[in-house]
Design brief:
Layout lengths: L2 H16 L3 H17 L3 H6 L5 H17 L8 H5 L6 H18 L2 H25 L20
Length: 153
């Protein structure tokens, strides 16, 4: 069995188990980013970095297709894109909260559960990577919190 055939089999199993399709991914991504753009905490971070939202949304559709369906559509480097962002555990919690609300609104339960499991792993990985880039080594269960100006902890 070739790698492509194996990927197709995995994708077919995921689709059968969860009901996730490319149109569902697009709806989830578009509705999620509408919430992000309206969020008082996350919107300024995204707006400072994204001038044209349509290419970003299309790229995120490819990302979630690759992650959720193993489609191989996304060819980027998410960690490198997130390392310079001024975010910490609070931002990731906010992001996950909006993502969970959107997934539960848009997706059937099996699909929402699949997306949420992946989103939690992605957020944890990005948070760990950003902490490391800031010289912070997190222990098991620890979260990355940026120091406020004047904080001597």
């Amino acid at each position: 069995m070739t790698a492509a055939e194996r990927r197709e089999g995995i994708t077919a199993e995921i689709v059968a188990r969860t009901g996730i399709t490319e149109p569902l991914i697009e709806r989830l991504v578009r509705e999620f980013y509408a919430k992000v753009r309206a969020d008082a905490v996350l919107a300024p971070i995204f707006e400072a970095r994204i001038e044209d939202w349509e290419p970003h949304v299309e790229q995120m559709c490819a990302f979630w297709s690759s992650v959720a369906l193993m489609s191989g559509r996304y060819q980027g480097t998410p960690m490198a894109r997130h390392l310079p962002m001024p975010v910490d555990a609070d931002h990731f919690d906010r992001w996950l909260g909006l993502f969970e609300i959107t997934a539960r609104e848009v997706c059937p339960p099996e699909a929402a559960a699949h997306f949420l499991e992946l989103a939690r792993r992605i957020a944890a990985s990005l948070e760990l990577g950003i902490a490391g880039a800031q010289g912070v080594l997190l222990g098991s269960g620890e979260r990355f919190r940026r120091k406020a100006a004047g904080d001597i902890r």
